[in-house]
């Protein structure tokens, strides 16, 4: 009977041992499953974080490129500049992890260590050459283009066409188009010489000649015909008895024996000669 009781105790002990081993194996399996899930989660999270970082960097690069490209047209110069650029660099990091596991001890938990690795990121810097467009010297930016700069405003309708250079409208000259064309010149920036003759007045805007009395023609180089006088010879002379008409004012120069403003009167008795001045 004692032997039967001892055999029963041995069976109970073996059963307990098998139960304990099964329980320890189950716990160990759960720990491995948890660790594997944790590693997978960290890996997915790191990859997503890296992807988001690259997307954000691409957006910044695209925006900066658009800002540089917005400046276009003539008078745009390229400027180069060295600068430090930050970026995220991935590397494999290892660490010694402490964990507890079931064991045949009192209490039945033992400390163990394992080496684990995962992808980590750190910020690093690299030197890059940055090129971007700027307005050349003497030009300023205006709505995405580079226009010439004139410190003093151009006057009288003039426009700034070059660095500190005004292009004047007809009839004006000077650094800021503040001066009228001098005598003998006309047109844009007073760059054209007048062709007027015989002291005619030249229009500083169009170059048209305004003739003095006694002259006509485009350049006032044609004298008045006999019998006409005044500006452009529009007026008609009324001298009679062979009197000569002045092309300037239409006054009559009488022949000998005649007098009067139109030479219409003969000399009175007792006088003779030019203007009846002889007695």
From TrEMBL:
Q: What is this protein called?
A: Multiple epidermal growth factor-like domains protein 10
What's in the GO CC field?
membrane
Q: Which UniProt keywords apply?
A: Disulfide bond, EGF-like domain, Membrane, Repeat, Signal, Transmembrane, Transmembrane helix
Organism of derivation? Stegodyphus mimosarum (African social velvet spider)
Query: Start and end of every EGF-like domain?
Result: 147-178, 229-264
What the entry lists under InterPro entries is as follows: EGF, EMI_domain, LE_dom, MEGF_diff_regulators
* EMI domain: residues covered: 73-148
Entry superkingdom:
Eukaryota
- Transmembrane segments in this chain: where? 23-45, 52-72
SMART domains according to UniProt: EGF, EGF_Lam
Cysteine pairings via disulfide bonds:
150-160, 168-177, 254-263
| Any Pfam family hit | EGF_laminin
